[in-house]
Amino acid sequence: MSNYIALNAFSMNTLSHLSPGVWRHSRDEARRYLDLDYWMQLAKTLEDGKIDALFLADVLGVYDVYGGNSDAALSGGVQVPLNDPLALIPAMASVTENLGFAMTAAVSYEHPFPFARRMSTLDHLTKGRVGWNVVTGYLNSGAVNFGVSAQEAHDRRYDIADEYLEVCYKLWETSWQDDAVIADKATGVYAEPSKVHPINHEGEFFKVPGIHLSEPSPQRTPVIYQAGASKRGLEFSAKHGEGIFVAAPSRTVLTKQVAGIRQALEDAGRERSSATILNQQTVIVAETDAEAQQMFESYLEVASPVGALTLMSGWTGIDFSKLKLDSTFEDQESNAIQSAVKAFSQADPDKKWTIREIADYARVGGDGPVIVGSPTTVADQLEEWVEETGVDGFNLAAAAVPESWEQITGLLVPELQKRGRHKTEYSPGTLREKLTGNTARINTPVTQNIRK
Ligand SMILES: Cc1cc2nc3c(=O)[nH]c(=O)nc-3n(C[C@H](O)[C@H](O)[C@H](O)COP(=O)(O)O)c2cc1C
Questions:
Q1: Which domains does the chain have, with CATH numbers?
Q2: Rounded mean pLDDT, 352-362
Q3: Which atom of ligand 1 is least distant from the CA of 279?
């Protein structure tokens, strides 16, 4: 295995992703999320830095748990307004050759039949550079717009997701045989009908009798990313994930999570190292420690603690406006992201978080940690996190944009390359081939079974 630290960039098609309020910073250009130029330039910057993939988060709903309404989210621009991530990808792919695109889409609101076609379309247009971050949704405010009174219960959302993936795998992996497309101009036969199969899926949640509408794309199944971290979520991510995302605030928490994921992979009949585990990580890097610290402080001046608690309320399903700032955050039931509650309430025996500390911590970088310093300092710390926790790499989040991205690719990347911890060239092939070094097709026990 290589000595490389895996690096994704983590963003969202919105004004303010994980550092609420920083859009007000004098150098920040987040408002340009509405310009295609902004995204195309970002893709080029990330490709210059040999970043594996741009991971685009998404939610279908507004953060209205804090205070019981969406006022704080709207007035602070906290992940709202929010545009669709998919539309950005073909434009970014057109100005890059190697950067991958990991798009988030929830299985809770959209039927798998059209969704599978959309992903195949993207996989064709990007020449096999697409990934899918499979999420089950956590905002009730999203679910109710689909005509239900509330989102499904936490574990049942994963049951639906399991079947959703089964339908997608059948469409992507089994509907069209490799040699179904003949495209013979002489005979006028494009596809051999006997080699294109209806999937005949009939399950508890979905009924899909027909064929996949797209012909096989370079990867067929996009690279599957997942972030389930509760007991049921972990079982799901270990079954499907080729990349697994976590957001651990400390090394102690991350060490436990990584060990849990490796064990879950083994329990799912997979190699312990068969999925790349990436922790969310905001880095603020400048030429010197002092300069980086100064930048960080200038972000903190405009970052919004209320915005941070608005995010935390959405993630945990717990209204933080009702909690006293100096009270400690205790473990409690959640129908949103159970692991987000546990990460701050009980996972670290050395740390009891107060609400004020959480607000302070999460206003830059959200629920993931922040590292501030010169390229040497940041690279040292990233290496220490990897050595100590066994994590494979990071989803790097920006504080101010595009400043953070330019600093990461211009300063941190060369330092990591110098240490042999980051590649200097991309490997050839599709996103999956680049990441695994070999296989173009997904190769988990569940997809092996479906292909049989
Ligand atoms: C780094 C990271 C990024 C995530 N991005 C999204 C996202 O964009 N949209 C979403 O609905 N959920 C997102 N999630 C939430 C996960 O999909 C999942 O609900 C959560 O991590 C685990 O839930 P569980 O603990 O309840 O199993 C993300 C989680 C992590 C750790």
A1: 6-304+367-451 (3.20.20.30)
A2: 91
A3: 1
